[in-house]
Amino acid sequence: MEQIAIVSDIHGNMTAWDAVLEDIRKRGITRIFCLGDLVGKGPDSISAVDRVRENCEVIVRGNWDELVAKRQPGPHFEWHAESLGEERLSYLAALPFSYHFRLSGRRIRLVHASSTSVYHRVQPWDSLEERMGMFGAISESSSEEMDAGEPDVVAYGDVHNAYLQYLNGKLLFNVGSVGNPLDLPQASYCILEGTSEEQAELETGAPSEPLPFNVQFVRVPYDIEAEVSKALQSSAPNMDLYINEIRTGVYRGLQGK
Q1: Would you say 70 and 47 are in contact if contact means Cβ atoms under 8 Å apart?
Q2: Residue pair 186/222 in contact by the 8 Å Cβ criterion
Q3: Would you tell me the crossing angle of helices 45-55 and 14-26 to the nearest 10 degrees?
Q4: pTM here?
Q5: Has residue 140 got a pLDDT over 80?
Q6: Cis preceding-peptide flag for 230 (omega within 30 of 0)
């Protein structure tokens, strides 16, 4: 079966990203798809952008990528924009909103946050209607993606909280975050296992025929205190909030509650 690593939300944490890349390599996986938010909150947006570009076959645009690329006012975004330089900012701005492909006869959609916007957050406890909206029409699409049909599977990032749900016969899952997990303090990613469209057609005569399919969640421990040291040596803004999040896995807005 083909294996594809799905990663998201590196957020400038190269210590976590290097650990995840090493785990992916040890498993012999050569295809990596990224669901966005390469940059901020951590200190090393430059290396994160460069290493994602080097290693990921597919990359979709995250909300932080968009906000930094357009130099949104505020220290969170302006500092990272200045450090990245114009070429990387242009690259981030040009990233696609979504990506569609088939695996084991299933139509799979990849987005960062939702099917309507990189800013529209969908949590696992939201209403069924809200979660089913992930399978609806997307706001930015190429003609190829529009012809892909309604997906059977949607994978996304953004909320930094890994989970999987079956909803009315469809599969929705969040891969969590590599660099800023907000469920437990270990880097998170997923592995999709299935049969490619070409191989499915060879085996069954029909690329849309359902075949065995698997989603595996992986947690990778990494040296958090080494990343804390990098953050403390950086001039990036709000490193105290970032450090608390990577140490505890608790969102900054909930710290102390």
Answers
A1: no
A2: yes
A3: 20
A4: 0.94
A5: no
A6: no
CB 35 within 8 A of CB 60: yes
Nearest 5°: the CA angle 210, 98, 166 is 45
Q: Which two tokens stand for residue 69?
A: 């690329």
Pairwise CA distance, residues 198 & 190, whole Å: 23
Neighbouring C-beta atoms of residue 3, cutoff 10 Å: 16
91-131 pLDDT, tens per residue? 999 999 999 999 999 999 999 999 999 999 999 999 999 99
Q: What residues pair up with 220 in beta bridges, in sequence order?
A: 187
- Return phi, psi of residue 239, to 5°: -70, -25
pLDDT digits (tens, 9 = 90+) for 212-224: 999 999 999 999 9
40: pLDDT confidence band, cut at 50, 70 and 90? very high
Name the 3-class secondary structure at 192: strand
Q: Helices H, strands E: what count in the chain? A: 9, 10
Cα–Cα distance list, 107 to 53, 73, 110 (Å): 25, 38, 10
